[in-house]
Amino acid sequence: MTGESVADSERLRRGLVEQFEQSGCLASSAIKRAFLAVPRECFLREIAEREGLERVYRDQAIVTRHDARGSPASSSSQPSLMASMLEQLDLMPGHRVLEIGAGTGYNAALLAEIVGDHGKVVSIELDPATARDARGALKHLKSAATVVCADGREGHPQDGPYDRIIVTASSPVVPRAWHHQLREGGLLELPLLLARSGTQIIATLRRDGPRLRSVALLHGGFMALRDAPGAAVAPPAPSMGAVEQLDGRSRSLAHLSGRALRSLSQTRRQQLLALALSEPRRRPLGLRASRAALGLYLSIQAPPSRLIGGWPGIGVMSANGDGLALLAGGRKTFTHINAYGNRDAERELLDLVEAWNTSGRPSIERLRIHVSFMPTDRSAVRLNWTT
Questions:
Q1: Residue 121 pLDDT grade (very low, low, confident, very high; cuts 50, 70, 90)
Q2: Nearest to residue 121, comparing CAs of 106, 152, 99, 90?
Q3: C-alpha span between 138 and 123 (Å, rounded)
Q4: Residue 384 and residue 95: Cα distance in Å, rounded?
Q5: Enclosing H/E stretch for 365
Q6: What share of the chain is helix, strand, coil (3-state, %, to 5)?
Q7: Parallel, antiparallel, or unpaired for β 146-149 and 162-167?
Q8: What is the reported pTM?
């Protein structure tokens, strides 16, 4: 890099850290120093050369690889989400850290910077090409982080036990190997895929004897943990929508998604989409509800056979798809219901909102996750709301 490029990189890193501090996702001086010290462009060279440094330092995830179907298979995560996850991991100098999913190697470099010369960072990557590129970028930066090409579900017992384990791919289960390789009282952070709804929650879990208990939770999501090199990323939940193309501009008119759509015939699905395109009945909630809090509550409490992710809200459909009710409102709050067709869905959604309200409007801070292991080593995930 030229002297001018180095100066631009340093300036952009300072700007990114200032964004983090203003948004409240960064408080630790050690994590701040890591983001200032590690140039993201070292791990996104092609992007930097093609689109410039400004693109690299936008607070956005950047897809770096696609699978055979053209779906995203690897990426550099959104920097502010990385900062929030590092904050929750409560890293200390000298910690031994296992990362599942090396990606570009950027997060491993940040981890190594934080734990320092007396710590150790081992990053596991399933895909050989991705592991090779991450290893090369870390070597170029003279980072002490190590990349191992292996199945992350098995961990890496050779360098364990670990003070911290961080997972950068979503999973509906917690492999027993991660629990075994974590020190008592150590922290495991992973995007947990809730099987009932497909919702992801980034959970930080503390090892408490034979169990894991959540100590912090974040909103966010990652690509699925793969089980073979080059394997296709798990497809998203079924979805359908209608888009208007007019005068060179594209506008989404309706978008519905969720596993509940699988229960409907093609004709019923088309009828449901037609309902979503019709004029709704507007039903005020009588309150302003946090989108994040109420949306999470519905994704956990609503029957999976009824739950529908909709644009721009979330809601439920009736049993046979002849009714639909979606929460709607502003950018941060829900204020009313848009209802269509049969009123059963509207009544069910109102009941769920009332249950959330009378429970004290629980948010992610009140959710607790407990993970235990059966004799077969299969994990059992239990959720409950605290009062």
A1: very high
A2: 99
A3: 11
A4: 31
A5: none
A6: 35, 35, 30
A7: unpaired
A8: 0.90
The residues carrying an active-site annotation are 77
Q: Residue with structure tokens 């009140």? A: 366
Is residue 148 a contact partner of residue 159, using CB atoms and an 8 Å limit? no
Q: Are β-strands 120-125 and 96-100 bridged in parallel, bridged antiparallel, or unpaired? A: parallel
Per the document, the length of the chain is: 387
- Distance, in Å, from the CA atom of 58 to the CA atom of 48, rounded to the nearest integer, reads 12
Cα 268 from Cα 321, distance rounded (Å): 6
Q: What topology is assigned to 61-219 in CATH?
A: Rossmann fold (3.40.50)
Average pLDDT on 96-116 reads 97
Q: Residue type at 242?
A: A
H helical segments located in 52-127? 53-56, 79-89, 106-115
Residue range(s) occupied by CATH 3.40.50.150 in the chain? 61-219
Residue 300 and residue 259: Cα distance in Å, rounded? 14
- Where does the pLDDT of residue 6 fall: very low under 50, low under 70, confident under 90, or very high at 90 and above? confident
Extract the tokens encoding 82. Answer: 């990385």
The band of 66, judged by pLDDT with boundaries at 50, 70 and 90, is low
CA distance 77 to 79: 6
Amino acid identity of 258?
Answer: G
